[in-house]
Amino acid sequence: MLTLDRLDKVYRTGTFGTSDLHAVRQVTLDVQRGEVVSLIGESGSGKSTIGKMVLHLLDSSGGTITFDGRDVTHLGFRARREYYRKVQGVFQDPFSSFNPIFKVDRTFETLRRSYFPRVSSSDWRGRLEEALAAVSLEPGDILGKFPHQLSGGQLQRLLIARALLLDIELLVADEIISMLDASTRIDVLNLLVELKSRGLGILFVTHDLSLGNYVSDRVVILYKGRVVERGVTAAVFDDPLHPYTRDLLASVPHLDRTWEDVEAEEAERSAALAGRCLYHEALAAQGRALGEEASAADGDDVGLVEHSPGHFVGCFRLAAGDPCPAGA
Ligand SMILES: Nc1ncnc2c1ncn2[C@@H]1O[C@H](COP(=O)(O)OP(=O)(O)OP(=O)(O)O)[C@@H](O)[C@H]1O
């Protein structure tokens, strides 16, 4: 459904826009119907930039975005409007998505005027109630209220309901859980799982590995704008190949283990891998040398190699922008 092929983003920075910041490098990934794909990485790894390019809130600097088989990398005003019928985003801070001086109903009215001007009031009311029910909200509890009279979780659900009214196929959910309290978090996560089971594709942007593990079918690990590992969630979480993925996983607190236990386990794992490069081993196993890694022609990510079926890994040094001595 959604395919990003070697997507790039360079920001112009500096006082006079004289420097370049290469925020996203050659990112290739796809999201299918009824699937949650998590984009995971630390702050500044380029996750939101990717989400914004998919939502056309930012122009890409290179590569292509394909949706339902159509190249949507560059869209004019009309085409963009149509695109938004199918693709919508929900962001971290639900409060900033509402104008505090208007009741939340206005969000839905604006949507109706823009996209459904011919739908009668009673029909619209029916559709609205259906969308609210889909996100487990009671119209009576929500409509007629100002944003400050509702909780963050309720506002986040409202934004998802708004997206559902458009009958979307893809939702970009950018850190939508991070500002919610623990009990609301799980409700919103379960809502995403429910929407997925109805066929919605979700690109779930998060820095939180446990959230990614909970909701996603596949994960994409980003480091400094590059994909360093991707695959089916269980494969990546049970057998992380890239040192960065391993560091990320080791940094998650475990209820049943102390930090010392985790550290000892990781030290053992690192010792077993010392002097080895899984990336180059996987390349060699395929009879390929550095420089012959996955290419677009293989349908794989540039710079990644398939270590086991569906589980891709990149070179750590390459991701950091350094030459890899193992390949020299
Ligand atoms: N408008 C912008 N102009 C210049 N640089 C930007 C802009 N937006 C983001 N960046 C830079 O691009 C890089 C990637 O930022 P991005 O927000 O995509 O990362 P992120 O992984 O989503 O981080 P976070 O989780 O903190 O939101 C960062 O170095 C950031 O400083």
UniProtKB/TrEMBL annotation:
Domain called ABC transporter: residue spans: 5-249
A GO biological process held by the record: peptide transport
PROSITE patterns xref list: ABC_TRANSPORTER_1, ABC_TRANSPORTER_2
GO terms for MF: ATP binding; ATP hydrolysis activity
Keyword ATP-binding set for record: yes
SMART domains: AAA (SM00382)
Keywords in alphabetical order: ATP-binding, Nucleotide-binding, Transport
Database matches in Pfam families: ABC_tran (PF00005), oligo_HPY (PF08352)
Superkingdom classification of source: Bacteria
Protein name per the record: Peptide/nickel transport system ATP-binding protein
